[in-house]
Amino acid sequence: MNDRIKWCCILLALLLVFFLSLGAGQQWINPFHASGQDGFILWQLRLPRLLIAFAVGGMLALAGAWFQVLLGNPLAEPYVLGVAGSASVGAVAGLIIMPESAWMMSAGAFVGAWIGISIVMAFSHLGAGRMLLAGVVLAAFWSALLALLLALLPKNSLGLAFAWMMGDLSHSDIPIALLSLAWIVALGCGLVLSRSLDALLLGERHAEALGVDVKPLRQRLLLLASAVTAIAVTAAGTIGFVGLVIPHLMRMLFGSLHRAVLPASAIGGGLLLMLADTAARTVLAPSELPVGVLTAMIGVPVFLFLLLRRS
Amino acid sequence: MEGLLSLSNLGVERASRCLLSGLSCAFHAGEVVVILGPNGAGKSSLLLALAGLIPSSGETSVLGKNLHHYSRYELSKQVAWQGELPPTEFGLTVQQRLNLALSDGCGAMESVVQSMDIQTLLQRPLGELSSGERQRTELAALMLRDAPIWLLDEPTAHLDLKHQIQCINMMKTERAQGRAIITVLHDIQQAMAVADHLILIDGKGGAEYGEASLLFNNVRLSQLFDVPVIKQGNLLVPDYGE
């Protein structure tokens, strides 16, 4: 199958999933004939949530692709350096300060994410291996701190905290326009850096020999990937698997060059999260499942299937 | 005479260990300089220092301009370095790897691919190649770089006899076309076949530069490698005993 057909398939899938997700819910609403209260549900409730899912999923997949190249490790994902952990600590700390306040939780998550990132940045000059080690150790520290804070959290805020930690798209305190802009800027920056990122696949030394200034590139990439992760986490809590699975899936489809992998991941990640979120709010409607559970349930079997088929 | 690449009092340190110091020489267009020495003596480090990939002391100038005054991109136009590729995990194919080396559309992809016998490998991921195939791919990637100075780190490693000879012949052809080639080799016969000058690195901080015809003698090489090297006709060979 040539690349053009694959792109057509992805875009077709995107359209299909978009309209399916728009229509699906506690009750099916035909997106082409919706008016009155149905119209309100469709355009004021489902559409914004769908757009959030798309932007967040896309950004997580982009961040995953960047971290994998940056750390030279196929197992890397957006949370590998402990950003999810520090964001969760921040979110719960926010809830302790102001119980039951979703806004305070998001603000806490954003601050927490950046504290985590700043600590990891201090290790970035030591090279990929040690930065990864620092990230893993920090993640353990954050999870211990999280356990401590959860014990201190008032009972009435526990539900909110747990829902957030498993990924929650039902309320986002970041405006959709801002999230969409972040998605576009992230993809644009990624595409500008794509040739340097390709060279980085050969290892740092070979990239330098090809004329790539590796140190500033690494700094920029780390900052970019971290900022995108922080925004995604703040908007939707911690959602696993999208950032790990989608970049690999797209490499299987399009090869490893970033001018294809990055846009495909930005769309593919959005697609998976839209699908997962739709399933999360319809399977047991009117109650909702955590979307992180669904991304794993959809993403992992598809990934394993493709892995088996390829070998 | 000022060379394409000249060193004045060059010193290289790795992990606080002085590998070599006080090396002064100039490399000219149309010559091959072979670096010889025992394992861990600092041969590869010397190449990395010349490519500006690790720090060094003293002064290194490339086409009359201090190495450290070049941007990474400008330097890559003048100096091409070939070294072993670390294992890559992301399925880059041979063709894609070669495209990365192809700067600004110059270089003749087809003839280079043919000269390294990698026509059938182009769509294969690097991770699935044998060591020899990887090496040939890296040599092809080097040949696509239109830099006047080439630095090669054990170019014949992992190659079968046929491709070892092709590699040596390739260096001779490039020399004839005015390329300055500095290469690390382990095989004395190969070194004798191609070297105009030698750099001998002893692993104790000392480095000696000189004409190949003077430095290729059995006493000097026996000393350098700490094993007997004997003369057989025009050749110098290691003494493997009975």
Structure characteristics:
A: 311 residues; mainly alpha; ABC transporter involved in vitamin B12 uptake, BtuC; 13 helices; B: 242 residues; alpha/beta; Rossmann fold; 9 helices; 32% helix; 28% strand
Structure description:
The complex is a heterodimer of chains A (311) and B (242). Chain A is globular and about 65 Å long. The model of chain A has no long low-confidence stretch (mean pLDDT 88). In chain A, 48% of the residues are buried. Chain A has a single domain, classed as ABC transporter involved in vitamin B12 uptake, BtuC (Orthogonal Bundle). In chain A, α1 runs parallel beside α12 and α7 runs antiparallel to α12. By secondary structure, chain A is an all-alpha fold. Chain B is α/β, with parallel strands linked by helices and 242 residues long. Chain B has a single domain, classed as P-loop containing nucleotide triphosphate hydrolases (Rossmann fold). Helix content of chain B is 32%, strand content 28%. Chain B is built from 9 helices and 12 strands. Chain B has a 6-stranded mixed sheet, sandwiched between helices. Chain B has a 4-stranded antiparallel sheet with strand order 2-1-4-5, covered by helices on one side. In chain B, α3 packs parallel to α5. The longest helix of chain B is centred in the C-terminal third of the chain and has 16 residues. Chain B is globular. The relative contact order of chain B is 0.18. The model of chain B has no long low-confidence stretch (mean pLDDT 91). Chains A and B meet through α8 and α9 of A and α2 and α3 of B.
Write the SSE topology.
The complex is a heterodimer of chains A (311) and B (242).
Chain A: H1 3-23, H2 36-70, H3 83-97, H4 102-121, H5 128-152, H6 155-165, H7 176-192, H8 194-200, H9 204-209, H10 214-236, H11 242-254, H12 258-282, H13 291-310
Helix pairs in contact in A: 1-2, 1-12, 2-7, 2-10, 2-11, 2-12, 3-4, 3-5, 3-6, 4-10, 7-10, 7-12, 11-12, 11-13, 12-13
Chain B: E1 5-14, E2 17-27, E3 31-36, H1 43-50, E4 57-62, E5 65-66, H2 72-78, E6 79-82, H3 94-101, H4 109-115, H5 131-143, E7 149-153, H6 161-176, E8 180-184, H7 188-194, E9 197-201, E10 207-211, H8 212-215, H9 218-225, E11 229-232, E12 235-238
Parallel strand pairs in B: 3-8, 3-9, 6-7, 7-8
Antiparallel strand pairs in B: 1-2, 1-4, 4-5, 9-10, 11-12
